[in-house]
Specification:
CATH superfamily of one domain: P-loop containing nucleotide triphosphate hydrolases
CATH architecture of one domain: 3-Layer(aba) Sandwich
Shape: globular
Helix content: 25-40%
Family: Belongs to the ABC transporter superfamily.
Protein name: ABC transporter ATP-binding protein
Keywords: Amino-acid transport, ATP-binding, Nucleotide-binding, Transport
InterPro entries: AAA+_ATPase, ABC_transporter-like_ATP-bd, ABC_transporter-like_CS, BCAA_Transport_ATP-bd_LivF, P-loop_NTPase
Strand order of the largest sheet: 6-7-8-3-9-10
CATH class of one domain: Alpha Beta
GO molecular function: ATP binding; ATP hydrolysis activity; branched-chain amino acid transmembrane transporter activity
Length: about 240
């Protein structure tokens, strides 16, 4: 199969010559889920912003389906099919669930009913403003808004931010189902490591600005010691 998302030798950061993250290489095919892991400050969000076009890479290139994505252009990235769910969710808090979804629609194949199939809770809260939803419901809506844009690559930054583990356990299988149903490639930043590895195909652990570990998610889940070493920046590349 042909790669859908490629990051080749990407350095990411905010000051030229001072990368936060160095030499990141990612190859994701349609329907694959990548768990992007690592301690706080490892550069996960910086990488997500770079892939999403909100930050130009300091080096290297990002491609979608073999076509280079214009560096540092969020509009070009969205048009190409790269859609980010940011860690702050970026909802219109004064608008209802229905209004938030409608504003995000690109008139593609995804409808509000499709979103309600993934998140039945939102259908019951369709007339409630986003600001009055629970944290879990807000995250469902943020993901739903992204799906309304028919992404080829879905980027979900810090899915579990502020959520109870029981909610995370409910949301992560939906991410897996979205990838399976739509063929979108997914990059998921998640602090609940073992839960993320359960639904991912592959995983990367970032530490101290480098890729400390990269491999099959199930194989990594079977060796927690290796992951712990990677979080400390002690693991070798795989």
């Amino acid at each position: 199969m042909n790669a859908l998302l490629t990051c080749s030798g990407v350095d990411a950061g905010y000051v030229p010559g001072c990368p936060v993250l160095r030499d990141v290489n990612i190859t994701l095919e349609a329907g694959q889920v990548l768990a992007l892991l690592g301690p706080n400050g490892a550069g996960k969000t910086t990488l997500m912003l770079t892939i999403a076009g909100l930050q130009a890479p300091l080096a290297g290139s990002i491609g979608l389906g073999g076509v280079p994505v214009r560096p540092g252009s969020p509009r070009a990235a969205v048009k190409a099919g790269l859609v980010l769910v940011p860690d702050d969710r970026s909802l219109f808090k004064e608008l209802t669930v229905a209004e938030n979804l409608r504003l995000a629609s690109r008139r593609g194949s995804t409808t509000t009913e499709t979103i309600f199939e993934y998140f039945p809770e939102l259908k019951r809260r369709v007339k409630v403003t986003a600001g009055n939803l629970s944290g879990g419901e807000q995250q469902m809506l943020a993901i739903g808004r992204a799906l309304m844009q028919d992404p080829k690559v879905l980027l979900v930054d810090e899915l579990s931010m502020g959520l109870a583990p029981v909610i995370v356990e409910k949301l992560l299988p939906v991410i897996r189902k979205v990838a399976d149903d739509t063929g979108a490639a997914v990059v998921l930043v998640e602090q609940h490591v073992m839960l993320a590895l359960e639904i991912a195909d592959t995983a990367i652990v970032l530490a101290h600005g480098d890729v400390a570990l990269h491999g099959d998610a199930k194989a990594l889940a079977a060796d927690e010691t290796q992951i712990e070493r990677a979080y400390l920046g002690q693991a070798t590349h795989s």
